[in-house]
Amino acid sequence: VAFKSFAAVDFSWARVAEATPAEHLSLMLPMSDPNLPWLGTLIGVPVLGFYFWCTNQFIVQRVLGARSVAHARWGALFAGFLKLPVLYLMVMPGVMAGILLPNLEKADAVFPTLVSTLLPSGLVGLVMAGLLAAIMSSIDSTLNSASALLTMDFMQPEKRGWSPTRIAWTGRACIVLFMVVAASVSPLIADFPGLFQYLQSALSYLVPPVAVVFMVGLFWPRATAFGAFATLLGGHVVSAILFGLSLSGVLTLHFTIIAGVLTGLSAVIFALANRFGSAASLEQVARFTFHADAAAPDPSLAPWQDYRVFSAVVFALTVILVIVHW
């Protein structure tokens, strides 16, 4: 689809830039932009990204399934590298849809319309089959991770003496429950201008307290359980209040800015509440907090096999993309 989209404009970037509004080709948009103001890009989007890639069980379960820590590192790096060309393989064809499909009204219809318009019949079926397979893969991973969290972490079958068969059936029942809830909530999506915005808006209110607890617990050995609990409780209470104000029209901040604000407020709650809890000893938390020794690569490896070198390369490429499309 990306190749055919570029071919449709004669592979001319000048033509795309001339026919496309400047804000569609820029990452940093004015504060008045209804889609993604620059402040939200700086303080909100990183929080949502950190949550998805570092704390979301949907992703974490894949890392935990790696053969070793080294494999997990290289897998994460490879995933980060694969995200870089997404800007040109997925985003830019969407931008060019403004030229190729000037009369299209619904943004959610861009991809299927491009597929049916640009690709021959045989490829349309192949692409749609691949899309459905990818969707099913994401859905089953999401249901599996949600079921595993609820069954293993909250129900704690090992303390109740459950048999493996009962654990399996409980997990299946949880999956059915989640599917029913998802189907019940789906009509609300129609009230949002786009599916992606609906998902990101919901996450902007839900994830900041979780992200703060994870980051503080990872990097601060003196963090306490009481501080974490108070942050989760107080942060979500504040989130609910801000969500209500947004629905009523009293608060008009963009949801990405709200994510940044909630992150700051959650950090303040943690700092204040942490003073009333007792921290575990440094020996007890050493395995669970970040330290330089744990990040050191295997000394027997050659320099070009150092994951930190490739981390710097991926980071540098990301910075270059941001600067180019600032």
Characteristics of this structure?
mainly alpha, 3 domains, 18 helices, 0% strand
Major sheet description: none
Order of helices and strands: HHHHHHHHHHHHHHHHHH
What are the segments in which pLDDT stays under 50 over at least 5 consecutive residues?
A: none
- Can you tell me the number of structural domains? 3
The proportion of residues in beta strands is under 5%
Helicity range: over 70%
What's the number of helices? 18
Overall, the morphology is: globular
State the end-to-end CA separation: 25 Å
Q: Structural class from helices and strands?
A: mainly alpha
Task: Give the overall pLDDT as a whole number.
Answer: 85
What is the rounded Rg? 23 Å
How many strand elements? 0
Secondary structure layout:
Blueprint: H1 2-8, H2 13-19, H3 38-43, H4 45-55, H5 57-64, H6 69-83, H7 86-100, H8 110-118, H9 121-154, H10 157-160, H11 164-185, H12 195-206, H13 208-219, H14 225-248, H15 255-273, H16 282-285, H17 292-295, H18 307-324
